[in-house]
Amino acid sequence: MGLIEIELFATLDLVGQAPGGPEEDPAGGFPFGGWQAPLIDEVAGAQIGAAYEGTDALLLGRRTYDLFASYWPHQKGGEDGDIATLFNSVPKYVASRGTPDLSWAGSTHLGPDLGAALREVRERHEHIKVVGSLDLVQTLLREGLFDRLDLWIHPVVLGVGKKVFDGGEVPANFTLLAPPAAGPSGTVYLRYALAEGAPRTGDMSAPDRGV
To answer: Which residues contact 203 (CB under 8 A, 6 or more apart)?
Structure first.
């Protein structure tokens, strides 16, 4: 059974909208498109590259798919050559209520029953990456339809924009898979796995807490 792994770039206030460029997602007049670009350093770049090793499928929401389909098929060589080769070669699965244009080679539109569709995708692949796709991520978080969450937290606060956790999430536990890693720009990389059970509560003033 394959793993569904969410890859997200977020600010300190957990805004995940349009990190890559001004035209990525201008919905609602978002004024900070491309906020991640000034904070990319060699450490973060290496982390991102390593995170995609072994990826054998992409799971994308409609907006992210359309953006990627207009860009990555035309990229060859250069700084993004390895990512372009990967994205262009692996199967792409699109979660959308509409009828997306599937002109990007290797693309498949998932059916209306997302849970059933993802079970089939898990049977075919080992490491399925969800990139961007905040609306889809909200559904995956709410339904528990994922296994891992890779989160890059960047040292900026925007105050506006779509957030990673924006309401409707189900209480859940996570396990840290590796020590947090920070780069020179102040970006912190966190790798979590979804854990069993619901969050517990306690009393910080209890005697066994030493308070």
So the answer is: 209
